[in-house]
């Protein structure tokens, strides 16, 4: 059974050097832009900044 993904489409603006880097990486690895960008998002870490007490 194929898993259904909940999707939200977004548009991202990249600079020319960023596009070239992404294209080169995808060509070397044989992966799609979507796959590479999803992996980058999954690997993000969220750190909390402690607010100074008043």
Tell me about this structure.
The chain is mainly alpha-helical. It has one domain. Helix content is 44%, strand content 0%. It has helices spanning 16-29, 33-42. The longest helix is centred in the middle third of the chain and has 14 residues, at 16-29. The model has no long low-confidence stretch (mean pLDDT 89).
Q: What's the quick description here?
A:
The protein is an all-alpha fold and 54 residues long.
The portion of residues forming beta strands comes to: under 5%
Distance between the termini: 55 Å
Based on Cα principal axes, name the global outline.
extended
* Assembly classification: single chain
Q: What integer value in Å does the Rg equal?
A: 17 Å
Total discrete domains: 1
Low-confidence parts: none
Secondary structure: elements and pairs:
Blueprint: H1 16-29, H2 33-42
Protein name: CopG family transcriptional regulator
GO biological process, one term: regulation of DNA-templated transcription
Organism: Hydrococcus rivularis NIES-593
